[in-house]
Amino acid sequence: MVFEQELDLLIRSSYPIIYIPTPEEERVEQLITYVGEAGSPAREVHMWDIVNGFEGGEARNNPIAGLNEVEKARPEIPALFVLRDFHRYLEDVQVSRKLRNLARHLRDSRKTLILTAPSMRIPDDLAEEITVLDLLPPTYDEIAVELDTLLQSTPVRLSEGGKDALIKAAQGLMLSRIRLALGRAVASYGRMDERAIPIMLEEKKQRIRRTEVLEFWPATETMEDIGGLDRLKSWLDQRSSAFTEEARRYGLPNPKGILLVGIQGTGKSLSAKATASLWQLPLLRLDVGRLMGGLVGQSEARTREMIRIAEAMAPCVLFIDELDKAFAGLGSGYVGDSGTSARVFGTILTWMEEKTSPVFIAATANSIQALPPEVLRKGRFDEIFFIDLPSERERREIFQVHMSKVRPNRIREFDLSRLAFQSEGFNGAEIQQAIYDAMHLAFHQQREFNTQDILYAMSEIIPLSSTAGERIRRLQEWAASGRCRAASSDSASSIEQLFNDAKRHVDEPDPERTPEAE
Ligand code: ADP
User: Fold this and answer.
1) What pTM does this model have?
2) Which of 150, 395, 442, 516 lies 20 to 30 A from 314 at CA?
3) Helix %, strand %, coil % for the chain, to 5?
């Protein structure tokens, strides 16, 4: 529902106090005025701020006097009273008491109180009386209208494709920031053309950086950069058009997300990044650690903001790294930080389940033990993939990927089959490290590096798998129980083998232990 409709509905349903947290004062006031005028019957709109009071100068310098004016106004006349920056006075005991008294009075009148503020700050004792309404960044169509208005008075050289890209670059930004960026583009180049796109993208990067919990990630990695993981790749490939208008018309729901589970260095983050470039979507990274940090109450506000921005950027991929670390211990009666983590976690989970916007979550976890069980419940992710250590065939592919980056013309001189065979137990990150170590060694000796150097470098590395054996085995068992899917067909068959062996062991009686002998 668009903002105007939602506001109108709240007013008609006699919600007494509406709080709109937004940095866009001008835009929100225009919208409120529109809702006032378009209502039937039309509603009067009165604005108040601490310096000017109401239009006639009443109740200047005094928030209580402002509320008194609202109380005095005739109850049968439909009116909206907009109080600016009122978040600053809500902690005051008199203001808070007055608002609660007023709320009762407003419910029986045709008057509505609207508080606007650049940020969310509602004390607990007012939570019942106040309804929060978010003003989202403008939609694609609203931005298009804004751009058309601006283009009427500016020299333009912008193709339809360029216009579409510019609007997409602006999605997620508030109108005031969009206007600033467009103005900057025109001031820099004397006209509006495709050069406005990087300016808009830069504005958006800055906006996202200011949230401190989201980061715009360049998705430079592609599917070709991933060795192995054939099943995961084909799952992603099958869904590469799933966010198009055509897919909607076909009746497909938006893919929700995937969880990639496996030990470190097996290519989970790499796969998340490659997903964004395969689907040609922007990639946002959520820093859950930062989401939790800071003052009490900030985490919840940040979570709401994060969700709002991610939705405004949609379609996009939202990368959440190491979910298990972020929410470790939750779901087992954890009460650590006065419930903040649990609330943030609950908000994110509910959003994951209910969201219909095309925000695709690519989350990773190094183990499942620490994950709260709710995460794994059906409906949260479309699929959970287990990323095993690479098989010999996959290790060959990984060597191929990295060697073709560092020595595209000499790759045939390397014995990739031997390297793959000798690197049993290595993950992708360790294979890459062995190549770099070999290069350092040879470069230091002022010569070209070769297969032997890589083999030597490998002999110096102790792979993580040598100490993480137990963790890997537990993940394999978990995959064998059918609760997740193996990301590679090699891994699937070896897990199946393991599972069958174990089953045979249980099903088949031991020939040495005949019933007679017992
Ligand atoms: P994880 O997120 O599983 O801890 P990453 O995706 O960060 O691991 O992997 C680190 C690096 O190791 C990658 O940037 C990549 O260079 C290399 N790597 C890991 N797995 C693979 C793979 N399957 N194919 C190619 N490179 C890989």
Assistant:
1) 0.74
2) 150
3) 50, 10, 35
> Mean pLDDT over residues 45-65, rounded?
92
175: three-class secondary structure by DSSP: helix
Compute the distance from residue 233 Cα to the ligand 1 centre, in Å: 14
Q: What is the CA radius of gyration of the chain?
A: 29
Dist CA 116 CA 93 (whole Å): 19
Size of the chain, expressed as the number of residues it contains: 518
DSSP string, 120-146: ----GGGTTTEEE---PPP-HHHHHHH
* 363 beta partners: 259, 320
Give the pLDDT score at 450.
95
Cα separation, 66 vs 53, whole angstroms: 7
CA gap 178, 197 in Å, rounded:
11
* Protein residue with least CA distance to atom 18, ligand 1: 428
CB-defined site of ligand 1, < 6 Å: 226-229, 264-270, 364, 398, 401, 428-429, 432
Of the pLDDT bands very low, low, confident and very high (cuts 50, 70, 90), residue 241 is confident
Cα torsion angle, 497, 500, 506, 507, sign? negative
**With the C-alpha atoms ordered 288, 293, 296, 301, is the resulting torsion angle positive or negative?**
negative
- Token pair for residue 298? 């900030």
- Quick: pLDDT tens for 288-344: 878 876 655 677 778 888 888 888 788 889 999 988 887 776 655 444 555 777 788
Where does 31-178 show beta strands of DSSP type E?
44-48, 79-84, 111-117, 130-132, 156-157
How confident is residue 459, by pLDDT bands cut at 50, 70 and 90? Answer: very high
Distance 267 CA to ligand 1 centre (A): 3
* Angle, vertex CA 200, rays to CA 198 and CA 203, nearest 5: 110
The count of other CB atoms within 10 Å of the CB of residue 369 is 12
**Most confident of the ranges 94-108, 188-202, 340-354:** 94-108
Crossing angle of helices 340-354 and 298-313, rounded to 10°: 20
Q: What is the Cα–Cα distance from 497 to 407, expressed in whole angstroms?
A: 37
387's CB contacts (< 8 A; 6+ apart) are 229, 232, 260, 261, 262, 266, 267, 268, 271, 487, 488, 491
Residue 39, pLDDT score: 87
pLDDT at residue 123 in the model: 85
pLDDT band of residue 249 (cuts 50, 70, 90) is confident
Phi and psi (nearest 5°) for 259? Answer: -115, 125
Report helix, strand or coil for 74: coil
Using CA positions, which residue lies closest to atom 25 of ligand 1?
A: 226
Range in 167-171, 291-295, 427-431 the model is least confident about = 291-295
Query: What tokens appear for 379 in the block?
Result: 């409906």
Q: How many CB atoms lie within 10 A of CB 118?
A: 13
Nearest atom (ligand 1) to Cα of 228 = 23
Strand order across the 44-48 sheet: 44-48, 79-84, 111-117, 17-21, 130-132
